[in-house]
Design a protein that fits this description.
single chain; about 130 residues; Spore Coat Polysaccharide Biosynthesis Protein SpsA, Chain A; four-stranded parallel β-sheet; two-stranded antiparallel ribbon; 6 strands
Length: about 130
């Protein structure tokens, strides 16, 4: 991958349909939080700059991910996906020359092999990611 995208991981929601006191993205899967699998997949794609949008149970999420080498953006009110991206605009301003991949933090089974062709297709067509 020639172009170096950054990733914005959406991890601020309550996950109310999940019916748990623990935020969904922190539920363990194969010994680590669900969102950690997403971060690992992004790293395997060569995406090193990652912003994580936190909101609900933000302290727990930040504590769980403090060793992951990510930056955090706080979404004070959880008003949806577009609002989560809007909450990150100040941090994103320093990456205006980069492509942006927006991904949900609750996709632990998404594999790099599935996402790589999508990214490459966009790049080959000269599209923004």
């Amino acid at each position: 991958m020639k172009r170096k995208p950054i990733a914005l991981v959406l991890a601020a929601g309550k996950g109310t349909r999940f019916k748990s006191n623990l935020i969904k993205i922190l539920h363990p899967l194969l010994g680590k939080p669900m969102v950690s699998h997403v971060l690992e997949m992004l790293r395997s794609l060569g995406i090193e700059d990652v912003l994580v949008v936190v909101g609900y149970q933000k302290e727990r999420v930040i504590e769980a991910l403090q060793e992951e080498g990510v930056q955090f953006v706080v979404q004070a009110e959880q008003l949806g996906t577009a609002h989560a991206v809007l909450a990150a605009r100040d941090k994103l301003a320093s990456f205006l020359d980069r492509d942006l991949l927006i991904i949900n933090g609750d996709l632990p089974i998404l594999r790099a092999e599935s996402l790589q062709p999508l990214i490459e297709t966009h790049f080959q067509a000269g599209n923004a990611l």
